[in-house]
């Protein structure tokens, strides 16, 4: 079983969506994605 | 009162009605706190509930806040929905460890297996001529803690709706009651929140609803942001400023965590000026967080720096200094003048 992705640290902070957590989750995904793009264009 | 005829009641009365409705809706809803049973609480918010629901559902506790919260956590783990009262804001600190270390984190710690639908009712803030422990605004300490929701109503209607929404939410909620506003009266309709909670997915809709701010008054020159006890002050300031030709938009945040910064940023982009008012000390307060978000998202549309009006970085002073310590009309209007003339 592989390690859980870092994005799972945003899971289960709340049982219902919380705007701050969702905003930080989205930012983190974009940030992580930007590294993927850089590698793809290298 | 019928579904089509709103009734006039105080905020304390509206919370009482909301608690009663929640207890009638769900037999797992229990109340606990110091003197909340036979006495009905020091502010009489739970008056009549012990008599009507009995001592198994409305429980007087020892003077032990940590024990009250710890007991509520255990009950929630066993399927109950405890609503506990911390008698005064400053009395919450003995329970701080239970709230921040256990209540806030159990859902995360259990990877979502355990939900703790605990509501902590806290009469908070000042303007009652009391001293420390009885007039404090500790919301930043709890808003800073992931896992907790922190909300505060400013009107009897919101008090009635939001206490039921908080109880229905699967997350732990600090429900901050502006005690100086307990006896303010307003119209309350019972129908909207009842329909929301009776509908499928009602708890999710309720949680989302209580997390949103509202525009309490529309305006075009300055965005004045408040919540709980300072909303009335903000509206008074808007009245005075209007007479002097300044149009103020008042936003009632309603929720401190999550913070509905979208509503504030939308307004800030139109007015270009923002003043945030709360009784909690300005230093590291909710206004600091909101100011940062507005600056991050609307920087090039701002005509002036975001200003805060709040309590000072002192312990809550004796009552003779309370008027100067708390935001008042002069301090709010001074901030409005400063953003208008920047």
Main attributes?
heterodimer, A: 42 residues, 1 helix, 55% helix, flat, B: 342 residues, alpha/beta, 14 strands, 39% helix, globular, Transketo_C/PFOR_II (chain B), 3-methyl-2-oxobutanoate dehydrogenase subunit beta (chain B)
Please render the helix and strand layout as text:
The complex is a heterodimer of chains A (42) and B (342).
Chain A: H1 19-41
Chain B: E1 7-10, H1 11-25, E2 29-33, H2 49-53, E3 58-60, H3 65-77, E4 81-85, H4 96-103, H5 106-109, E5 119-124, H6 139-143, E6 149-151, H7 156-168, E7 173-178, E8 185-188, H8 191-198, H9 202-210, E9 214-217, E10 222-226, H10 231-243, E11 248-252, E12 255-257, H11 261-271, E13 274-281, H12 286-298, E14 307-311, H13 322-325, H14 329-341
Parallel strand pairs in B: 2-3, 2-4, 4-5, 5-7, 6-7, 10-11, 10-13, 13-14
Antiparallel strand pairs in B: 1-8, 6-12, 9-11
Cofactor (chain B): thiamine diphosphate
Keywords (chain B): Oxidoreductase, Thiamine pyrophosphate
Pfam families (chain B): Transket_pyr (PF02779), Transketolase_C (PF02780)
Could you please describe the fold and organization of this structure?
The complex is a heterodimer of chains A (42) and B (342). Chain A is mainly alpha-helical. Chain A is built from one helix and no strands. Chain B has a seven-stranded mixed sheet with strand order 3-2-4-5-7-6-12, sandwiched between helices. The longest helix of chain B is centred in the first third of the chain and has 15 residues. Chain B is globular, with a radius of gyration of 20 Å. Chain B starts with 6 loop residues before the first strand and ends with a helix. At the A-B interface, helix 1 of A face helix 9 of B. Chain B: Its cofactor is thiamine diphosphate. Chain B: This is 3-methyl-2-oxobutanoate dehydrogenase subunit beta. Chain B: Keywords: Oxidoreductase, Thiamine pyrophosphate. Chain B: Pfam families: Transket_pyr (PF02779), Transketolase_C (PF02780).
